[in-house]
Amino acid sequence: MIAGLLHTVPALAPTFDALVAEAVPGVAREHVVDAWMLETAIAEGVTPAVRERVASHLRHLAESGADAILVTCSSIGEAAEEAAATLPRSIPVIRVDAAMAAQAIDSLVSPSDTPSSHGETQELLAGRIGAGRIAVLATNTATLGPTTRLIEREAAAQGVGATVTASVVEGAAAARAAGDQAGHDRLIADAVRDAANPAGGEPATVIVLAQASMAAAAESAGVDIPVLTSPAGGVARLAEALTPSDPGQPDASANRPAHPGSGGTSEEATGTSTPTPAATS
Fold first, then answer.
1. How far is CA 213 from the centre of its chain?
2. What's the Cα-to-Cα distance from 230 to each of 5, 62, 75, 205, 237, rounded to whole Å?
3. Sign of torsion, CA 77 16 92 210?
């Protein structure tokens, strides 16, 4: 069983490697890391060249035997969805923010919104009852569009009346680039508190931190509303895709020759590949 992971932030590869190893014990992990894609998306948008690079990396992971692929960068999520349809074989390609988007919409629906004895569906009830404001925060503009559209798509699919706002946490990206992780996290926590308790305007019902790199700042905000992050949910969906629904059935890679070791490869923006141990990336 092989988990493929596509990253644009090199520092996040070890974090996801550990999360996947814990969620699916014994799974082999193959990582591709390409910082150029995010750098270009921030500077120019998700260009055709970025989309082609995403597709190329997904093909590499599929051809390397991955049974499911997690794309850990929200900025290239839409490009990954498009590229998934072109893979030489059908395997799950999971956006890291997909579970978070679903959770954000679920947070707007009352626990009483369950199917009734009269056969009404949860979607119909949610359409009547579920509503609220979702504040999407990111540290770069490249992520705002893809995550906001994903949440709006999820709201429409569930019939929930969500108002989605999106804003960049000014200065956070510069702080992280300068090596000031504490400053980065502090600015995000301040933005979370501002969204939850604005000086003017309506407060958010739920806050979404659009990038996996923002997750560490969530707990320090100390607000009374849900603050959602993507890594745990993304890994949970990857684990579901890798785990056979019938415990008596072998997984998709049962008859595939095993790769040396269990860690796979880590591919930098230069395109070179280096074998890595199971617990590192």
1. 10
2. 14, 23, 13, 18, 11
3. negative
The order of strands in the sheet holding 68-71 is 93-95, 68-71, 2-7, 28-33, 265-267, 273-275
Give residues with Cβ within 8 angstroms of 44, minimum separation 6. none
Average pLDDT of span 7-26:
95
Tokens of 222: 């100390």
Residue 249 burial (C-beta neighbours within 10 Å; 0-12, 13-18, 19+): exposed
pLDDT: is 86 or 254 the higher one? Answer: 86
Domains and CATH numbers, the chain: 2-96+232-275 (3.40.50.1860), 98-229 (3.40.50.1860)
pTM over 0.85: no
Q: Quote the tokens at residue 238.
A: 């990857």
